[in-house]
């Protein structure tokens, strides 16, 4: 049996699953101050239902990291940067208490083109000592291709400042994009302590309940990792809420189809795309506090319109405002809202019908429209706003840059087959939206706990991206900071692929990931290095992973 | 609104001429690494665009492809050309203030008639973009500045008879480098005399020398010409590490050049120091175009003192600039005196060699000397292929501003030739006033129209 727990902003969902069967589902309000209590309130009824039968794993998705960052309750981190030539290092402001830039440079092949300066290093160490900051992120441009400078700086600082916590950029991510690496690295260090604290409490709690099942954490890319692995990079668990709902929809809708996931809430409507069965990832990584990061996350969009959005008439035209002033008028709120319009149009039976009519009357008077026409206009505006955003998401995806002929050839115009609604206002609005977009409306069964289902069923995702440079006899792995000599000769792309697949399996075993799935090759590419008309080496990129997605699907889909 | 620079980055990681050719998959790999690692695409001043395929008609506006367009191109060519069109649209729609198409394969050695690949080029990306801009947005006067180390002989060929296009190329002296042309006396055909300016530079010319030419000659000429748009054929092989040439230009020199030149649209051409130059030069150009500080961009071995000019070079450059300034200012008198204006046609002939594909082409050109308009040209071209095969074509180029009688003459000439092909294999008419492009294949008696 599997357990999925999603501690969301408003509600905490939990499900107990056996195969495709939902044994028990729970929804309770989330108490921000006491997240553990919310968790228990959702978990205990499931455990009771399980009656001591074996639980294989528990997957947790929480807003913990999102909240820590949003409320700036993260630890102060100072930056030691080795930017090298290129952009002026002052171009980016990472908003940290202290930033020190050192000279020294590594180039795109990982060759040292300028050494570190010992004197600067000493001054840097003294500055840090004086500043009182004891968490340091050391990040160099192209450090993923040669971590020598990062290592040297980190070792030196740790030797001279005993209680210093140091993280290095290459440990966090080996993907290209230095500014994103700097920001991701500092967020990683800034959130590690609280993440560990929270999860040791969770583990303690599970232990007291006698649960031996491993705890997994859902990440922003809809995959899960065992707790220990997540603890090294907590920032990857940001935005796990939208990831959970998308994975839930993936489980609850027909396979290999193209769907829009629409979560219509109180003041926002959150959108995500599933393209032929694969959730779309944000091409530039998650944006946190308006800074881009290397965190793989689903491409989501939040539209400032929901069931409780405030409606008003200005200069003779109707406006949907991006905030709420309370519940809907028909539920005793102060202002007319789209929920009132839905009530009048007979799309829901939430709230008091007469009050809803009154709400539409208030607006209708200034618009010169009848009650029914006012409700129609409101819904039409809402539908237009949301469909415009959906269309722009598809357009943005189509216009994402491509660097290879085959990539361009592959990107055709794609339109959704299904609009899948979750969230309170979905049953009322999804049919209208689907009509406008000429899609199939889907309100899946158990949609109200889609997030918990998504968490429960999300597969482990372990991906390794290898870069081999046979001329330098060196390779590195983007995801885990490994930088080593190539242990066996690679004569072809196939050799490299075989090596990568082998390493992935080993890594999986090391992390305790048990799966019957064969790993797959996401891409592999070979460049001949030619110097003076002669091939002097090869650059080979290979990306491998265990299959992602959900463990089981409800093939027949929703209703 | 803040300043925006559009980028199309299409490194064509799956296209090469041959596996060890300088124009191969690896060429923009390190540039990609540098640009992506720097986070250039994330900067608020940069907008990245996805390229699209150019249409055959876009190509037919510029070229006579033998035996037809599909034989001369691959999908990569369509995408590289199409990438420039995406930027052209974005520029004209005011989404961006300027744009740089980092695309390959390159194009500036492609001429009007295309029998094959020469100088790594099949079709001419900038010319395709320019004709697209003229057709779709009504631009008239164009300035092209070619900063590639090789003479932009394709661009020169395409615009040699177009007085509305000012083509300026500075390059390593043709006596010492491919393609062996681009001398001071190549100033344009009779109807467009003086709107082609070639600046042959001595080997080892440095930042200082190139900026002298820019400041003293190129910028004043542009100021006087008042183009609707400035295009940079942005080759990067003047760099001091380029393996195929012998100049001493730096990444910072290229950046400063773009800062001064302020091209509206730039298109990547050559540059084969793929490790030691391209990552830095491209970075410098992009930053300069976007108005971002580029003073931190430098090659690992860059020392400013290595790029000073010698007195001998400066003396040569001074004489060269004066000579070309004179030619520019006296261009009308020289055109009036230098061509037989009482005759209907002026004729010339030449040989063209296709280095990549080892094709020899013999060309005769008849230029209609019309006193009212830029007229038309009739090209007769014989391609001698390495297989021994020969193809002979005739192509008529009708200027977009041709007067009604020249238009009639040119179309009549095309019809006459179809009726009596005189041993020709293919007959073409580039009817720019009507934006119609005809190709008649004699053996199949079939006409293609774009």
Automatic annotation (TrEMBL), chain A:
<dbReference type="GO" id="GO:0017168">
    <property type="term" value="F:5-oxoprolinase (ATP-hydrolyzing) activity"/>
</dbReference>
<feature type="domain" description="Hydantoinase A/oxoprolinase">
    <location>
        <begin position="181"/>
        <end position="461"/>
    </location>
</feature>
<dbReference type="InterPro" id="IPR045079">
    <property type="entry name" value="Oxoprolinase-like"/>
</dbReference>
<protein>
    <submittedName>
        <fullName>Hydantoin utilization protein A</fullName>
    </submittedName>
</protein>
<dbReference type="GO" id="GO:0005829">
    <property type="term" value="C:cytosol"/>
</dbReference>
<dbReference type="InterPro" id="IPR043129">
    <property type="entry name" value="ATPase_NBD"/>
</dbReference>
<dbReference type="GO" id="GO:0006749">
    <property type="term" value="P:glutathione metabolic process"/>
</dbReference>
<dbReference type="InterPro" id="IPR008040">
    <property type="entry name" value="Hydant_A_N"/>
</dbReference>
<feature type="domain" description="Hydantoinase/oxoprolinase N-terminal">
    <location>
        <begin position="3"/>
        <end position="160"/>
    </location>
</feature>
<dbReference type="Pfam" id="PF01968">
    <property type="entry name" value="Hydantoinase_A"/>
</dbReference>
<dbReference type="InterPro" id="IPR002821">
    <property type="entry name" value="Hydantoinase_A"/>
</dbReference>
<dbReference type="Pfam" id="PF05378">
    <property type="entry name" value="Hydant_A_N"/>
</dbReference>
From TrEMBL, chain B:
<dbReference type="InterPro" id="IPR023801">
    <property type="entry name" value="His_deacetylse_dom"/>
</dbReference>
<protein>
    <submittedName>
        <fullName>Histone deacetylase</fullName>
    </submittedName>
</protein>
<dbReference type="Pfam" id="PF00850">
    <property type="entry name" value="Hist_deacetyl"/>
</dbReference>
<dbReference type="GO" id="GO:0004407">
    <property type="term" value="F:histone deacetylase activity"/>
</dbReference>
<dbReference type="InterPro" id="IPR000286">
    <property type="entry name" value="HDACs"/>
</dbReference>
<dbReference type="GO" id="GO:0040029">
    <property type="term" value="P:epigenetic regulation of gene expression"/>
</dbReference>
<dbReference type="InterPro" id="IPR037138">
    <property type="entry name" value="His_deacetylse_dom_sf"/>
</dbReference>
<dbReference type="InterPro" id="IPR023696">
    <property type="entry name" value="Ureohydrolase_dom_sf"/>
</dbReference>
<comment type="similarity">
    <text>Belongs to the histone deacetylase family.</text>
</comment>
<feature type="domain" description="Histone deacetylase">
    <location>
        <begin position="70"/>
        <end position="276"/>
    </location>
</feature>
């Amino acid at each position: 049996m599997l357990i999925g727990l999603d501690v969301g902003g408003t509600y905490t969902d939990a499900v107990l699953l056996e195969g495709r069967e939902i044994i028990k589902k729970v929804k309770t309000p989330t108490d921000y101050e006491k997240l553990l209590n919310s968790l228990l309130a959702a978990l205990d009824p499931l455990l009771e239902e399980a009656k001591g039968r074996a639980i294989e794993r528990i997957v947790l998705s929480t807003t913990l990291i999102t909240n820590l960052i949003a409320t700036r309750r993260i630890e102060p981190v100072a930056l030691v940067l080795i930017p090298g030539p290129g952009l002026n290092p002052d171009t980016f402001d990472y908003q940290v208490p202290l930033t020190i830039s050192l000279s020294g440079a590594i180039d795109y092949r990982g060759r040292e083109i300028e050494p570190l300066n010992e004197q600067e290093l000493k001054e840097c160490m003294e500055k840090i000592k004086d500043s009182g900051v004891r968490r340091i992120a050391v990040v160099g441009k192209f450090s993923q291709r040669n971590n020598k400078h990062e290592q040297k700086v980190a070792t030196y600082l740790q030797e001279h400042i005993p209680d210093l916590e140091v993280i290095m950029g290459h440990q966090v991510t080996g993907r290209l994009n230095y500014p994103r690496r700097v920001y991701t690295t500092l967020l990683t260090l800034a959130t590690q302590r609280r993440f560990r604290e929270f999860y040791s409490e969770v583990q303690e709690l599970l232990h007291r309940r006698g649960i031996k099942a491993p705890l997994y954490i859902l990440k922003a890319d809809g995959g899960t990792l065992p707790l220990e692995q997540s603890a090294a990079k907590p920032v990857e668990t940001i935005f796990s809420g939208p990831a959970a709902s998308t994975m839930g929809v993936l489980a609850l809708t027909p396979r290999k189809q193209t769907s829009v996931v629409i979560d219509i809430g109180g003041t926002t409507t959150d959108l995500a795309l599933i393209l032929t069965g694969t959730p779309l990832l944000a091409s530039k990584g998650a944006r946190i506090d308006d800074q881009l990061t290397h965190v793989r996350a689903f491409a989501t969009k939040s539209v400032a319109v929901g069931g409780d959005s405030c409606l008003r008439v200005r200069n003779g035209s109707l406006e949907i405002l991006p905030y709420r002033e309370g519940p809907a008028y028909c539920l005793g709120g102060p202002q007319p809202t789209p929920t009132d319009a839905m009530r009048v149009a007979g799309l829901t039976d939430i709230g008091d019908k007469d009050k809803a009519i009154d709400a539409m009357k208030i607006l209708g008077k200034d618009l010169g429209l009848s009650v029914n026409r006012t409700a129609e206009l409101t819904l039409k505006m809402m539908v237009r706003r949301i469909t415009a955003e959906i269309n722009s998401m598809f357009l943005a995806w189509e216009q994402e840059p491509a660097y290879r002929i085959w990539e361009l050839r592959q990107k055709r115009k794609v339109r959704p087959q299904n609009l899948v609604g979750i969230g309170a206002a979905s049953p009322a609005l999804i049919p209208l939206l689907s009509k406008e977009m000429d899609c199939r409306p889907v309100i899946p069964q158990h949609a109200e706990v889609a997030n918990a289902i998504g968490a429960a069923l999300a597969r482990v995702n372990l991906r390794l991206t290898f870069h081999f440079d046979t001329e330098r006899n060196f390779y590195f792995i983007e995801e885990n900071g490994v930088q080593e000599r190539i242990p066996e000769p690679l004569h072809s792309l196939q050799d490299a692929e075989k090596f990568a697949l082998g390493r992935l399996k080993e890594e999986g075993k090391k992390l305790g990931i048990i799966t019957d799935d064969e790993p797959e090759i996401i891409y592999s590419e070979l460049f001949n290095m030619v110097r003076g008309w002669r091939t002097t080496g090869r650059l080979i990129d290979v990306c491998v992973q265990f299959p992602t997605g959900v463990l089981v699907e409800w093939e027949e889909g929703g209703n | 609104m803040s300043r925006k620079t559009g980028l199309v980055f299409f490194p064509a990681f799956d296209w090469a001429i041959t596996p060890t050719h300088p124009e191969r998959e690896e060429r923009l790999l390190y540039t990609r690494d540098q640009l992506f690692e720097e986070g250039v695409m994330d900067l608020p001043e940069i907008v990245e665009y996805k390229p699209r395929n150019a249409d055959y008609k876009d190509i037919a506006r510029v070229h006579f492809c033998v035996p037809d367009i599909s034989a001369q191109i691959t999908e990569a060519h369509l995408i590289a050309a199409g990438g420039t069109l995406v930027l052209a649209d974005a520029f004209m729609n005011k989404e961006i203030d300027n744009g740089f198409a980092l695309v390959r394969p390159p194009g500036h050695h492609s001429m009007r008639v295309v029998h094959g690949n020469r100088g790594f080029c099949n079709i001419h990306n900038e010319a395709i973009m320019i004709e697209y801009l003229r057709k779709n947005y009504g631009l008239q006067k164009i300035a092209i500045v070619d900063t590639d180390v090789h003479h932009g002989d394709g661009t020169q060929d395409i615009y040699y008879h177009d007085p509305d296009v000012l083509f300026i190329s500075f390059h390593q002296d043709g006596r010492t480098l491919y393609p062996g042309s681009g001398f001071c006396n190549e100033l344009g055909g009779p109807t467009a005399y003086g709107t082609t300016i070639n600046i042959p530079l001595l080997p080892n010319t440095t930042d200082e020398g190139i900026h002298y030419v820019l400041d003293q000659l190129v910028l004043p000429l542009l100021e006087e010409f008042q183009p609707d748009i400035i295009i940079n054929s942005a080759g990067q092989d003047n760099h001091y590490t380029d393996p195929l040439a012998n100049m001493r230009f730096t990444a910072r020199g290229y950046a400063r050049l773009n800062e001064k030149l302020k091209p509206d649209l730039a298109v990547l051409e050559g540059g084969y120091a793929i490790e030691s130059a391209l990552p830095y030069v491209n970075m410098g150009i992009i930053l300069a175009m976007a108005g971002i500080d580029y003073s931190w961009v430098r090659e690992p071995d860059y020392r400013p003192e290595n790029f000073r000019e010698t007195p001998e070079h400066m003396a040569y450059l001074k004489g060269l600039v004066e000579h070309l300034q004179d030619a520019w200012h006296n261009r009308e008198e020289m055109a009036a005196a230098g061509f037989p204006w009482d005759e209907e046609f002026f004729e010339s002939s030449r040989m063209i060699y296709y280095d990549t594909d080892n094709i020899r082409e013999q060309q005769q050109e008849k230029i209609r000397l019309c006193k009212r308009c830029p007229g038309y040209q009739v090209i007769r071209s014989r391609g001698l292929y390495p297989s021994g095969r020969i193809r002979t074509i005739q192509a008529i180029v009708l200027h977009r501003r041709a007067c009604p009688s020249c238009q009639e003459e040119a179309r009549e000439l095309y019809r006459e030739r179809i009726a009596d092909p005189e041993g020709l294999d293919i007959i073409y008419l580039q009817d720019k006033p009507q934006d119609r492009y005809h190709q008649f294949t004699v053996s199949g008696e079939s006409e293609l129209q774009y």
